[in-house]
Amino acid sequence: xxxxxxxxxxxxxxxxxxxxxxxxxxxxxxxxxxxxxxxxxxxxxxxxxxxxxxxxxxxxxxxxxxxxxxxxxxxxxxxxxxxxxxxxxxxxxxxxxxxxxxxxxxxxxxxxxxxxxxxxxxxxxxxxxxxxxxxxxxxxxxxxxxxxxxxxxxxxxxxxxxxxxxxxxxxxxxxxxxxxxxxxxxxxxxxxxxxxxxxxxxxxxxxxxxxxxxxxxxxxxxxxxxxxxxxxxxxxxxxxxxxxxxxxxxxxxxxxxxxxxxxxxxxxxxxxxxxxxxxxxxxxxxxxxxxxxxxxxxxxxxxxxxxxxxxxxxxxxxxxxxxxxxxxxxxxxxxxxxxxxxxxxxxxxxxxxxxxxxxxxxxxxxxxxxxxxxxxxxxxxxxxxxxxxxxxxxxxxxxxxxxxxxxxxxxxxxxxxxxxxxxxxxxxxxxxxxxxxxxxxxxxxxxxxxxxxxxxxxxxxxxxxxxxxxxxxxxxxxxxxxxxxxxxxxxxxxxxxxxxxxxxxxxxxxxxxxxxxxxxxxxxxxxxxxxxxxxxxxxxxxxxxxxxxxxxxxxxxxxxxxxxxxxxxxxxxxxxx
Length: 577
Known about the structure:
This protein is an alpha+beta fold. The chain has 14 helices and 26 strands.
């Protein structure tokens, strides 16, 4: 286990095992290590642990955090023996691979046993702020500290400063300056860039430590110059479903429904912004201080969102919902436990019989994936028009028209919202309209379309239960600015929507269809519902996995009775509870 040894002149050295993945040092009472003196900030710095590596990060402290005599501006990896200076206090990091250095005097470590709890050290005190706290090299009391040219991380870690130097030289390289990106093929661009980087490696041979693998350095430089930098490997990892950049040095991913902090980072926030602009340029979208939020998509269809200063205070925040390379079908959802064969068969008949379906669920619950699967049940001979904010639906049929909303231009004009596209759909002779998500006034136009001969339409909506879904649609219709009584809206909902499919992401990260619910009409001003299938949770396994069963409620939907009366053969056994 890694350990911090804290030493102040005239006081005993104290040991703090790093038992948590995030340890905050400062004078605030809820810090993990409390240092209650004027020259220590409320939250001075933090140590982050991930995959056996420890990263020290200054938290915008007034007096600075010093590593091996140098004030740090960017996070630094800690290795055994690294010394950190906070005020007059010296902190020595030990990673557990070798014993700590012997104490300087017999009295330094005698009063605190190794492994003592945090609060046994009570409050760590310091008396004099370091001179040169504005960022110079002067140490406590004005004495000159020995300076380190570059603070490197553990062996094999590539310092951001080194990559910045290489990038600066790459931009000035004669071959790169001559390169016409518009006329060069992707292969030519990559080959010339690779040759230029290798030449720069030769020029900078003395600046590249022997511990750094040249092929890894080459890959990272190429990814940053021509791709999406540290995101490239995450995009290629099939186990990663979502990528979240909280700041240049904090990249999280979702794997199997669980969030984890990666050890990857950009060189700085400028690089994050360059990557954002590289994503947006091909799709004609922009993000800047006048328009600091943007939605978009990557080349593979992955959903992309960015929010920057002045709305994001800590730096650009980027979220990428990855688009699965393989188009999932009902068999995949059955294999993953998202639904049963009986439910899939029922939903197939429901789509084929032109029932209007709303898929309801929370963020990241799998609504779009399920919408893709249900849309695949639409017969090949029908004309389908899809409307989305950022196009990500991937329908297998040939006769599909894909429409995508358009944001405002730099003058703030020219926006084409989803609502206008839904209205335009009605002039395109669609058999089915598929709206990626109703989140505003377009819900009113969608209801109108469902009520005027466009049966079999599908959409998604953010809500937690089928009943909440009805209330949410009612609120969205009011957002359209129509002065319509609530009773009239509910009557529209009851006549337009036939089925609600509720999707949820459970506590273990699994995604399941929890309700398949029929809208049966309206009674005393309330839209009436009846569940056809439900998921009943029965417990949790020792590994933290959700246990439960899918059950048919025994209710036969009304349209099934109509189909049976017309002589259509149907398997009624799927409704037996």
